Amino acid sequence: MDISPSSINIGLYHEGILYSICTFGKNRKLINRGKDRLELLRNCTKENYVITGGFAKMISYFTKTHNSGLYSFVDCDWVSLKEPSYKRVGFVLEKHTSPGYHWTSGSTRENRLNYTKQKLIDKGYDKNKTENEIMKENGFYKIWGSGNLKFAYDNGQKDPI
User: Fold this and answer.
1) Which of 53, 69, 78, 131 is positioned for an S-S bond with 37, CB 3.0–4.6 A?
2) 145 touches 100 (CB < 8 A)
């Protein structure tokens, strides 16, 4: 399970049941240099439900209650690039990142940051071997992705996106 380090959570409820949620977190300065924006971390809807206009309502509520722009990343391996909901509510595409990779042993996809060479050395693996050599010896395979799309929403701020 992926844990989202959110500090702001906005949800859509009906009769006390949560049907959709957006979570937001602090600005990662190394990723979003020079901009004062919060990060939209997750946008999720209850399985087997479609909430028409729900994402737009949550973004609208966010803009009314927080004086901040937004940015968010979309994994190109998991979304339709034809008409992402981000564009429909006013987000602008800033860039398409370079492809990245994950590790797998066949049953789960593991974040590469959990297996950096230094972390592997700290666990007792040979410092003279590369990350790739250590992971391969332990039955892992590298899976390359298609990159991410970075979207930004300026919330009426004067800085152009």
Assistant:
1) 69
2) yes
Mean of the pLDDT values across residues 39-50? 93
Q: What is the pLDDT of residues 128-138, one digit of tens each?
A: 999 999 999 99
Distance CA 40, CA 69 (A): 10
Whether the pLDDT of residue 159 is over 60: the answer is no
Query: Architecture of domain 8-153 in CATH?
Result: 3-Layer(aba) Sandwich (3.40)
SS3 content of the chain, % helix, strand, coil (to 5): 20, 35, 45
pLDDT tens, position by position, 68-94: 889 999 888 887 666 667 888 899 988
Backbone angles phi, psi at 107, to 5 degrees: -110, -25
Ramachandran region of residue 114, left (φ > 0), alpha (ψ -120 to 50) or beta? alpha
The domain limits of the chain are: 8-153
Report the sign of the C-alpha dihedral through residues 55, 57, 59, 61, in that order: negative
Q: Quickly count: other Cβ atoms within 10 Å of residue 122's Cβ.
A: 10
129: DSSP letter: S
